[in-house]
Design brief:
single chain; 122 residues; alpha/beta; Rossmann fold; 33% helix
Length: 122
């Protein structure tokens, strides 16, 4: 019995989803939608800022190729701490380090429990 018959064939494409708690559950949903065509990996770190998300995903990010996709969903914790400038800096560093693959950036969701003019929603 070869690897393909045992369901152990190496996937042609990878999707890596990295982020804070907003990315929770996305890996399972994306994996379900993509069926067996992609290997889907999630690196979710609730409460983490962009620096931590960037640093913990660095090794996996370098394993990707032009056939793969890196999804980044973070910076909401930097916004809550009124640290958006540092979050943007680390976001830019993530994008620069992902120049050898396809990157999708997800924005921090709107906080409807706060006033619309608050710095968190800007």
């Amino acid at each position: 019995m070869d690897c393909k018959e045992r369901g152990l064939e190496k996937k042609q494409h990878k999707v890596i989803i990295v982020g804070d708690s907003h990315a929770r559950g996305c890996t399972a949903e994306v994996s379900h939608l993509l069926k067996n065509d992609f290997e889907v990996l999630g690196l979710v770190n609730p409460g983490a800022g962009m620096k931590n998300i960037k640093d913990t995903s660095r090794a996996k990010l370098h394993q990707l190729t032009k056939k793969d996709v890196a999804v980044l969903w973070g910076s909401s914790n930097d916004s809550v701490r009124n640290n958006s400038t540092a979050g943007k800096k680390h976001l830019l560093e993530f994008v620069i380090s992902a120049n050898h693959t396809n990157a999708i950036l997800m924005s921090a969701p709107q906080r409807y429990d706060l006033m619309s003019k608050t710095c968190v929603n800007n």
